[in-house]
Each structure stands twice: as C-alpha cells, then as structure tokens.
C-alpha cells in the first residue's frame, strides 16, 4: 500500500487543553445528542507523576525519526507535498508502548529512541507545559475499547491516566462508534479533521488516538502590499504561480546544506521555520543528506540578523499510513499477529497486534498566521486463532489406540481402512 506523509512540522513540545478524566458522562456531543460510548474513567483519577523536559538527544532522535519517515515516503510520493506531526505520532506510539512487553517493547523503544519511562515523562511534560496565552495549542488523547472481546489491563489504564490524561470509552464498535470517534477527533481539531476513520474492521478491539491542534497568528501579520503574485519552480522544471508573502525577519538559519529562517507567532513561544537547500534541482538529495542532529542543531541556533524572506501562501491536507515505514525502521513484532507482545495492554480471545497507524493532517499558511492539525490513530486487532505447526487429517487409513498414560500401556490398538458400516 502506498504511504503518504505531507511537510515536516517544527519539533516543539506542546501542551494540551485540560481534559477531565473523572465522571461517567462525556462532554462530547453529536448534533443529535451525546456520545454513545461509555466513559471508563469514572473513579480513575490521575496520580502525580514525574515529568521531564526533553533533552537534546531526545529531540535529535525525534527529528531523525521524522526525517526517516519522510525519506521513505518520498520514494512512493516524489514531488508530493508532505506533512507529518512528530509529536502526535510520538504521543500515540508512546501511549501504545505502555501495553507491550519484552521484544515488542524493546523494538518500540529503539525506534522511538528512548526507554518507556523517559517517553512517558516527556509526553507528560508536553501535555502539561502549554502556556495559557496565544496561540491556541491543544493535544488530546483517547482510548476506544470494544465492549466484547477485549478486557483492558487496569494497570495500563492507570498509567494512561497518569501520563496521557485520555478520555477512555467502551463501545460496541458499530456505526455509532465510528460516528463517535470521528466526532471526537473533529471536536478536538476544531473541525479541521472531520473524518478520521472510514470504517471499523470487525476484528478491531482497540483504538489509541491522539489529536493535535495549532492555531497561531504571526507576531507581525503581512500587509496587503507585502503579498504579490510570484513564481515557484519545481525540481521537474515546471514553473508555477503562487501568492508570495514578503517580509524581513530577524532569525536566520544556516548549515552546510541549507539556509533558512524562523518567523515568530504571537506570544513568542512558537515559530514557523523553513530551510532552503543551497543546491537547486535535487530536493531528494538534500533530504537524504540532512540528519536529525543537524536539523535540531540548526533550529536551536538561529543567528540574530536581518533576512529578507518570501514565503508562498499554501494550504493542503492529506492522510498517511505509517506501519510499513515503521516496520522498515525495525518495529516489526507489534504488527505481527502472534509475535507482538501486548500482555500489559489487556486480554482478548485471540492475539493482539497493530493493524494500522493512521495520521491525517492539515495545514494552512496565510497572511495572518497558520492553522495546522493532526490526528494519529493506532488500530489494534485481535487476530484469528493461530494455525498449529503440524496438521494431521484422518482422511485415509490410519492406526488407532487407547493409551494408559500413567503406565504407558496400550489398552487398545487397531486400524481403520475404510468407512463402510462404521
């Protein structure tokens, strides 16, 4: 299956609007009434846990993981716009990792670049550190558990409550649940992502969903005279028209591969950034040469100098499936029925495994600022019964016996050569 991702967002830890995790009634409503799913968080209060600001190594690895996903996707979508929300992906996978054990957990920790304790502490920090002033930034988490066929581990639910502050629902996983999930995602993204799922597979037993919303105004919006028609040149040699926004900024970015800038949003905590390859005509080569450590170091060390910037207005949305890319990076067991170890997540009749990791994204950059949103869903299925290693079919003549297992004695021994008169 072709996977698609659309443009790298700044790797800035962001916070979440407070979500109540106590009480049976959800605050989510459909136009026709309240959410149908039952909220499991009644009586489950979040305990105080240690949070930790991400260190340089954490940020660099997250940048490298994000670049790796873009590089892999580019092989299938060369020339396409790309958008990935690293924090949304990290949040959804870190939450999921709390339900894994042994090699499955080890592989996830390797791909995510940190041990589970560090992941939980950093994700908790990201959720708690949102400033109260503009811009508007929200991150929300939810778990959707099938009413029949899966029993969640209570320790997992408590850990989720402690670090990720999710809404947790039980639901029949029918059309009403599909509507509930899509409505929840739409509400948490201010309607920017209105349809996260198209359907719920019959064998699905759990969804772990993260949403991210960013809505920020420029510190200095563009005036009408700063916006004019311009040209955009693709690597394929095509010349396209664009509305170009011109300004003078004060944060210049530079490394051996590219030059760029940062442009602040109101409040000064968040910024838009861009890097332009020094060599024209081969963006794919630039992407392959840029590593996470260089990207992170460039972002964190802007030069205080004036730089003239022309930025095209743009807006697009897309969806992606990341399971094949993550599998290629070494996270293999989690996607394999019978191999993935989800023993701390809960119990089901059949083995649990991740079926899909979906991310839908949207961005709009205009004269006034930027709106961007992402939703990441980890879909977990309960597989069918595992076939035995050996097969014996008594559909031809056979020997039979009755054995005393205590003594090893054969009580009866016989043969069946045909079915006549039996």
Task: Supply database-style keywords.
422 residues, alpha+beta, Alpha-1-antitrypsin, domain 1, 7-stranded mixed sheet, 5-stranded antiparallel sheet, 9 helices, 18 strands
Quickly describe the structure.
With 422 residues, this protein is of the alpha+beta class. It has two domains: 29-216 and 315-382, Antithrombin, subunit I, domain 2 (Antithrombin, Chain I, domain 2, 2-Layer Sandwich); 224-314, Alpha-1-antitrypsin, domain 1. The protein contains nine helices and 18 strands.
Describe this structure in words.
The chain is α+β, with helices and mostly antiparallel strands and 422 residues long. It has 2 domains: 29-216 and 315-382, Antithrombin, Chain I, domain 2; 224-314, Alpha-1-antitrypsin, domain 1, CATH 2.30.39. Helix content is 24%, strand content 33%. The protein contains 9 helices and 18 strands. The chain has helices spanning 56-74, 86-97, 102-112, 116-128, 154-164, 175-188, 283-289, 292-300, 323-328, and strands at 29-30, 33-34, 38-39, 136-146, 150-152, 167-171, 204-217, 227-233, 239-254, 258-264, 271-277, 303-312, 314-321, 346-348, 352-365, 369-382, 398-404, 409-416. Strands 3-6-4-7-16-15-13 form a 7-stranded mixed sheet, sandwiched between helices. Strands 8, 9, 10, 11 and 12 form a 5-stranded antiparallel sheet that branches. A hairpin with a 5-residue loop joins strand 8 and strand 9 (239-254). Helix 2 (86-97) runs antiparallel to helix 3 (102-112) and helix 2 (86-97) packs across helix 4 (116-128). The longest helix is centred in the first third of the chain and has 19 residues, at 56-74. The chain is globular, with a radius of gyration of 26 Å. The model is unreliable at 1-33 (pLDDT under 50).
């Amino acid at each position: 299956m072709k996977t698609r991702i659309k443009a790298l967002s700044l790797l800035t830890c962001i916070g979440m609007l407070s979500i109540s995790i106590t009480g049976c009634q959800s605050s989510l409503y459909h136009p026709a009434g309240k959410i149908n799913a039952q909220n499991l968080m009644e009586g489950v209060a979040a305990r105080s846990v240690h949070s930790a600001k991400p260190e340089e190594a954490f940020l660099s690895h997250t940048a490298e993981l994000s670049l790796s996903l873009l590089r892999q996707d580019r092989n299938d979508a060369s020339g396409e716009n790309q958008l990935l929300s690293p924090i949304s992906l990290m949040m959804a996978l870190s939450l999921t990792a709390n339900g894994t054990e042994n090699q499955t957990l080890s592989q996830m920790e390797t791909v995510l670049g940190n041990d589970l304790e560090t992941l939980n502490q950093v994700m908790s920090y990201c959720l708690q550190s949102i400033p109260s002033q503009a811009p508007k930034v929200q991150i929300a988490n939810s778990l959707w558990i099938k009413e029949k066929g899966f029993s969640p581990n209570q320790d997992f639910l408590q850990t989720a409550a402690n670090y990720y502050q999710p809404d947790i629902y039980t639901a029949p996983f029918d059309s009403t649940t599909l509507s509930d999930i899509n409505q929840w995602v739409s509400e948490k993204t201010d309607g920017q992502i209105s349809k996260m799922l198209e359907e719920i597979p019959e064998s699905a037993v759990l969804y772990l969903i993260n949403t991210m919303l960013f809505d920020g105004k420029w510190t200095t919006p563009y005036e009408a005279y700063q916006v004019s028609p311009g040209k955009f040149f693709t690597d394929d040699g095509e010349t396209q028209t664009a509305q170009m926004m011109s300004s003078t900024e004060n944060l210049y970015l530079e490394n051996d591969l590219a030059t760029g800038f940062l442009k602040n949003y109101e409040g000064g905590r968040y910024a838009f950034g861009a890097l332009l390859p020094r060599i024209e005509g081969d963006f794919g080569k630039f992407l392959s040469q840029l590593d996470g450590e260089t990207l992170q170091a460039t972002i964190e060390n802007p030069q205080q100098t004036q730089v003239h910037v022309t930025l095209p207005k743009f807006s697009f949305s897309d969806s992606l499936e990341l399971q094949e890319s993550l599998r290629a990076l070494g996270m293999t067991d989690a996607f394999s029925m019978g191999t993935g170890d989800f023993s701390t997540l809960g119990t089901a009749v059949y083995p649990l495994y991740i079926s899909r990791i979906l991310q839908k994204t949207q961005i709009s950059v205009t004269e006034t600022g930027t709106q961007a949103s992402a939703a990441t869903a980890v879909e977990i299925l309960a597989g069918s019964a595992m076939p035995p290693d050996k097969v014996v079919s008594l559909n031809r003549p056979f020997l039979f016996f009755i054995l005393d297992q205590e003594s090893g004695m054969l009580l009866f021994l016989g043969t069946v050569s045909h079915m006549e008169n039996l």
